[in-house]
Automatic annotation (TrEMBL):
Signal peptide: none annotated. InterPro entries: Gfo/Idh/MocA-like_OxRdtase_C, Gfo/Idh/MocA-like_OxRdtase_N, Gfo/Idh/MocA_Oxidoreductases, NAD(P)-bd_dom_sf. Belongs to the Gfo/Idh/MocA family. This is Gfo/Idh/MocA family protein. SUPFAM superfamilies: Glyceraldehyde-3-phosphate dehydrogenase-like, C-terminal domain (SSF55347), NAD(P)-binding Rossmann-fold domains (SSF51735). Residues 19-138 form the Gfo/Idh/MocA-like oxidoreductase N-terminal domain. The lineage of its organism: Bacteria, Bacillati, Actinomycetota, Actinomycetes, Streptosporangiales. It comes from Nonomuraea spiralis.
């Protein structure tokens, strides 16, 4: 295919859109699977993924031509343009270089969060996309869920008057945190990114979208309190499979990943597949004995915080308190929005609206009557994001997508400021014209 075939999607109504994926792991696979299931499906035609098992699984699932299967994303970017759009779901520190390469090649880009690991690289991404004249959006899927749509409508309708403050909780969950941020790819800030950026840049983005005004000041506190050598129990071994006290440890890798083999469709099954590559007893036992996911959580090389709070003051005076923590059951986010006329309490699906005048509470199921449910990726956010971006490409309106680069850069700047505030123990003032 020559690049000229992809010049403007909106100029070719009815043509089947095509997608390449740089990073065929969990998120890349999920976005591709979502795209091929749309009412007007997108055809997945290329993939780049360094891990053999993940690459073969992806290519088989989406019937990718052998010539379009690459080990390295750079080889995909160097080839003649193969698709209308590319999903960039690589490791965090690879985002900037990849976006610059694909933008120059003329791909429209869906970029997994975070945009990049530094503010400077985020700016480079925006500048490169604008210079190339392509469309790009960040996968801030929280903006697109039916839950968010319902909440935004209540706020726009004035159901609680003017927002005064918001209290928001991201309960990461002990098991998920141990998997991803103690043993997994995001355990070290120097190899990936800080916890707030990797896990919750879209929480900050989401909160900013609710207030609808710029952040003026931010402070933050947090540390690596528990998952370190100082808290290692007496007698604990370096690996769970060798540990005499493993049966009494809440963070046992052996228990969690073996349970995943027995329940392949569960969250434990998903994590076991990630850690072992194959969901078999033999593969999991080998990974427990030799791989990073079999390490004791008190004997890993992790350095990201395991709990953090962020306080934000917005232009106009509204305040937000955000908490993310490993020490939770691992449930949906919890949010309370306090307004001048009422209060909204939400759990990711249901919204409870309390009206000050009537003193009545109304419960709204945000998924009632929807064609997809919370069982879909990120509560329907994956699908809604993909629908919005693909529709925008077809109609020539992709530049108006809610999680465009301008909006995403603004919220990322707040995240970087919060990290500076945490490290320096200070309050960071932000210009309101960013």
């Amino acid at each position: 295919m020559s690049g000229s075939q992809f010049t403007n999607v909106a100029d070719s109504p009815g043509r089947l859109l095509t997608m390449a994926v740089a990073g065929g792991g969990a998120r890349g696979f999920a976005y591709a699977d979502t795209a091929v299931r749309l009412p007007e499906p997108v055809r997945v035609v290329a993939v780049a993924e360094p891990r053999t098992i993940a690459r073969e699984r992806f290519a088989d699932r989406f019937d990718v031509p052998a010539d379009n299967v690459f080990k390295d994303w750079r080889d995909l970017a160097a080839a003649p343009r193969l698709a209308d759009m590319v999903v960039v779901s690589l490791l965090d520190h690879q985002h900037m270089e990849a976006v610059l390469a694909f933008a120059e090649r003329g791909y429209h880009i869906l970029l997994e969060k975070p945009m990049a690991t530094t503010e400077e690289d985020c700016v480079k991404i925006q500048e490169a996309v604008e210079a190339a004249g392509v469309h790009a959006a960040v996968c801030h899927v929280l903006r697109y869920t039916p839950y968010t749509v319902a909440l935004q409508k209540l706020l726009a309708d004035g159901a609680i008057g003017e927002i005064v403050s918001i209290e928001h909780l991201e309960p990461i969950g002990h098991s998920h945190f141990a998997h991803s941020f103690v043993r997994g790819n995001w355990r070290r800030a120097d190899e990936s990114s800080p916890l707030l950026l990797q896990k919750s840049c879209h929480d900050i983005d989401w909160l900013m979208s609710l207030i609808g005004r710029p952040v003026q000041r931010v402070s933050s506190f947090g540390s690596l309190k528990h998952f370190n050598a100082a808290n290692r129990p007496e007698g604990a071994a370096d690996r769970c499979v060798d540990c005499s006290i493993e049966p009494d440890c809440a963070f046992s890798a052996a228990r969690v990943y073996r349970r995943g083999v027995a329940a392949p469709d569960s969250f434990d099954g998903y994590n076991a597949l990630v850690m072992a590559g194959r969901l078999t007893t033999e593969a999991v036992e080998d990974a427990l004995a030799h791989g990073p996911y079999g390490r004791c959580v008190y004997a890993s090389d992790n350095d990201v915080v395991d709990h953090q709070v962020v306080q934000m003051e917005f232009d106009g005076g509204a305040t937000v308190s955000f908490t993310l923590t490993a020490f939770a059951e691992g449930a949906n986010r919890k949010t309370r929005v306090f307004g001048t006329r009422g209060q909204i309490t939400g759990d990711g699906r249901n919204l409870e609206l309390f009206d000050f005048l009537s003193e009545r509470t109304t419960v709204i199921d945000s998924h009632a009557g929807m064609g997809h449910t919370a069982a879909d990726g990120h509560g329907g956010g994956d699908r809604a994001l993909m629908e919005a971006f693909v529709r925008g490409l077809r109609e020539g309106t992709a530049g108006d997508i809610p999680s465009g680069l301008k909006e995403s850069l603004a919220s990322h700047r707040v995240v970087f400021a919060a990290e500076r505030a945490r490290a320096q123990g200070t309050v960071i003032e932000l210009p309101t014209d960013m």
